[in-house]
Task: structure prediction
Amino acid sequence: MLPVVIDKRMTCIAKCVRQDAILADIGTDHGKLPIYLAQTGKISKAVAADINEMPLQKAKNNVKKYGLDGQIDTYLTDGLKGIERFSPTDVVIAGMGGELIEQILQEQTINKTGVKYILQPMTKEESVRMFLCENGYTVTDEYIVEEGKIYQIICAEYTGEFTAMTPAEYLLGRINIEKNERLLEKLADKVISRQKVKIAGRQKAGLSVEEDVRCLDELLVIKENCYGKR
Result:
């Protein structure tokens, strides 16, 4: 049987998973990520979890189809609730809104120590980073992926250390800025456009824009130093 095929976004997420990890894939949908990782020998075990029965059944069918019943469990649950019974070392929460990712992390019942979190919010990346910084997580790596649209992938571990970033770093990612790879300029353009819309809206409403303008200035400086400008 041919191996399962995953897209560019999921391939980047798969690369973030550690060798021989016990994976918890939250919001697994069809279960393609854990199946791919099992087929490529990257993980030792996995649990494919979802809050909805229909996608979980699809994942279960796919796991069986590829003969991975003994390596991948499926589990119906809300977020990370009950996932501690599988003792995951690496947790993927991808393809959902930033606020939902924050809620899942806030309500988790697993032992966070030593766990690698691989997060791919569809919205509010800056809010996810702020949540991590304010709740004892350290961002350890970041990636920008383009596939139709631009996605940000955030890797983090719980260290108990409380940190802070600048407004532009929350939006773009401090590590993404340090890496200064090809897609940073494109991401910066997108965020700058959004920031300008925000400022215009606040001005129209008669609200203060001082902090927003400072953030925009920081974003513009970062853009000028992007890979494409060097």
